[in-house]
């Protein structure tokens, strides 16, 4: 009845539907009209050019952090440090972008690459420690998140500005912002970064599915013992995978620094882009295309939610609950899987 | 009318796409050991899971002591006095024997578990059936053979009168197998009936009273073990004639391919397991390493293949020093390795079987070009090997996980032999396989030898060692303690050598 492919698409779809349903019930329970609520959510995400542009803006870093988490995951690693890698990437991009001027064709790629490089470095450290000392990457990446957060605030205050709360703005020659994109989206903050994100998704798919290196990454992820037996260098693979993962997350930082903001504010708390990336990767089934789709959903929910309090009077906290419920249903997707299998069996 | 404890009549069980059991009859008499014989995937386990209440049959009836019953779940089976010892034990490592046995049916005094009473009961049971189990020992501290006895005791403690043993000897050493056979004999003396699932004919001939054969899900019939012989059983099971003594011409050893001198290897716990071992394998011969598990064989193989660091010593392949090189360098020097644990080392189970067939060569031409994989070439290669080595798989795109153990092993052998190595190391290549697959694998090993390759065979099955090897190196306590010719020795002598007696003493007895 179902092919496996259909099955893999059906499970996340049902998860999302159940999440929305549960959200509706909660809205009802607190005396809000779920239809109005979801209408406001929809309009807030797609209702006008401005909202649509903002949604795309939000989707851009989500794709990249989703890719970061997924790439590590496919090699058997849990990169919980995408958050810190986003922050260092942001710092590096703004640093390169604001400290000099150069022709755009040099300056912009340089700033983007600096972000990727910084993120890669932030991924390399836990990869190195995992490969050589066996230290679990989750612990190191969590710690590195805090280090990134506080170091970035120091950098903003003392290096990227003269004691201010945000960095100096980047030069125009390093900016991803586009007047054209802003105009057609009624002056949203949408920028060219979405192209970089989509290209990165293609790169991830290509590396993992088509290259010799990807064959090794996936083999190490599935079975490190057999990989070692087959002559693969498991340690090298762990380190490389964390570097690539970190580079993806670093690029997400560049999207914020060079595209959305054009500077870096000091943060009192995490941006959550990296943590949301875990959910994006999970819902997207850790594949390039899946992540683009799930990043789109998360971006739309995030941006659309801003419209719910003003239009429908539903507090934005509730939207976060709905998002959390969707993640919950995805995480427990084996229940849905089981139910579908039962269904399949009975139809036989 | 015969006195049957368990009768399964005309059982039919279907799974989507396949009929696992069709029209199978199994009638077990009170106090007999009844063998259930069949190839891997013939439907033995399915049938027993039906009896144990894990599956519901589509057709047929089950009778216990003449009364028709419906076994809807394992608890019903337990209540009817049917107990099952699975191949993979279900024990809590950190619990004691007693705690494991009473788990789920704890005797209580008030609200407190009465461990004292349970220990006494278990000790008595253990004595009655000659199991010799210490009820206070922790599971993680006792041997695999002992753990199996705990499983048996667990079913007896719950009042089982019919015991299903699912391939119980697969995990045991020859000595432990002997002990298990004795235990089975004393169990039936006490009136217990045993269903023994197996594909080892020798065991059937040794302890069983009757034997029911299944082939490809069909019941073939029941024979009296006294009136049959291994050859008849094998042909009943496989559906064609099987030769046991592998046909081979005398070996013609040539120049030395593998030379090991003074090798020392430590295990994970940092204990020296290989203690200054010397060994030599020549082109055109099969050297079998005999020994009881845990005498350093695993460490030896892992050091040879680069999976484990050697402390000291020289390993040379065709004269080239390969000690402590990376597995890739060693592979490229001309060594192939059929690993002992095919799931852990031999296969990436989530990869398609076709991609598993290039596990060591994926980075070479024509499979990879400038770092890009050529799936066309990979699957062309896979189709060739699948055909040549008769790997039964729905397609080369099927995940390795979905194949039966025998076909997984065939795929590994295809991959390793196809690389045409100078030295082929086969560690327990037929573990858990049925006679048909074993015959196939033995033939391939001998073919390699005849092509002038060196073969190093590690096995815990003495039959295999005696049948296939041209020279036997007996390993004990980290050393080769004897080199014997298979035609000049026998199981008794090998058994003694493996237990550490010297060649001289073994000869005296």
UniProtKB/TrEMBL annotation, chain A:
Keywords recorded for this protein, A-Z: Cell membrane, Membrane, Transmembrane, Transmembrane helix
Q: Which residues cross the membrane?
A: 7-35, 55-73, 80-98, 104-125, 190-208, 238-261, 273-301, 321-340
Coiled-coil regions, chain positions: none
InterPro entries from the UniProt entry: ABC_transp_permease
Entries under Pfam families matching the protein: BPD_transp_2
Major site of localization recorded for this protein: membrane
Q: Does the keyword Membrane apply?
A: yes
One Gene Ontology cellular component annotation held by this UniProt entry:
plasma membrane
Checking CDD domains in the record gives: TM_PBP1_transp_TpRbsC_like
The answer to whether keyword Aminoacyl-tRNA synthetase applies is no
Where does this protein reside within or beyond the cell?
A: Cell membrane
Recorded GO MF terms = transmembrane transporter activity
Q: Give the way it sits in the membrane.
A: Multi-pass membrane protein
Sorted alphabetically, which PANTHER family does this protein's record hold?
Answer: ABC TRANSPORTER, PERMEASE PROTEIN, GUANOSINE ABC TRANSPORTER PERMEASE PROTEIN NUPP
Q: What is this protein called?
A: Nucleoside ABC transporter membrane protein
Q: What is the protein's species of origin? A: Paraliobacillus ryukyuensis
Species lineage: Bacteria, Bacillati, Bacillota, Bacilli, Bacillales
TrEMBL record, chain B:
Boundaries of each ABC transporter domain copy? 6-241, 258-502
> What does the entry list under GO cellular component?
plasma membrane
Subcellular location, principal: membrane
Top-rank taxon: Bacteria
PROSITE patterns documented for this protein: ABC_TRANSPORTER_1, ABC_TRANSPORTER_2
Q: Does the keyword Phosphoprotein apply?
A: no
- Residue spans making up a coiled coil are none
Q: According to its record, how does it sit in the membrane?
A: Peripheral membrane protein
Name the keywords, alphabetized: ATP-binding, Cell membrane, Membrane, Nucleotide-binding, Repeat, Translocase, Transport
| Recorded GO MF terms | ATP binding; ATP hydrolysis activity
Q: Where in the cell is it found?
A: Cell membrane
- Do the record's keywords include NADP? no
Annotated family: Belongs to the ABC transporter superfamily.
Give the PANTHER family listed for this entry: CARBOHYDRATE TRANSPORT ATP-BINDING PROTEIN MG119-RELATED, GUANOSINE IMPORT ATP-BINDING PROTEIN NUPO
Q: What is this protein called?
A: Nucleoside ABC transporter ATP-binding protein
| Source species taxonomy | Bacteria, Bacillati, Bacillota, Bacilli, Bacillales
